Amino acid sequence: MKIKVFLDEALFRRFTKFDILSRRRLWRLPVTFAAILAAAAAVAFIMHRVKGAVFLGVVLLIVGLGMPLVYFSTFFLSLKKQVKLNRLSTPRLVYTLILTEDEEGIAVENLSEHAVYRWQQVYHAYRDSDATYLYMTPDRAFILPDSAVEGSPEELWTLICRMVEPEKCTVLKH
Asked: Which helix (H) or strand (E) holds 94?
């Protein structure tokens, strides 16, 4: 099965949000920080009769809510910058994958590189509503858009599930 991957802004954004926010769950630290400081601010507000407690509560609340705001703003601005840097405003060919049922059945190439992977090397595969994400390591994934698949996306997912251990195949809730 040959898949010529044309990446565009929407697909890249969807994948990056999934990877950073859902799979890696990097949203937890700023949200936990906000919750702790908000709780501390609530305690300070409850102790409003103590001199400076309300001021401390306001400062804790501003910092507690400001940090996640800055974190997520930076994330989305960085995402916008990556789209521009990679020239994804219009779809462009980034790599081609050839998947077979051979043991070394994952071949990837772009204009300057060629690599072959074994199915055993697959870290995890995720099936999303419009693409499949094939992770070779926890930090490196190939995005396989449904529109680029020769045949049907279901055939692709069936092939991956047949070649990769079942616990490494996850269908995402849509």
From this structure: strand 92-99
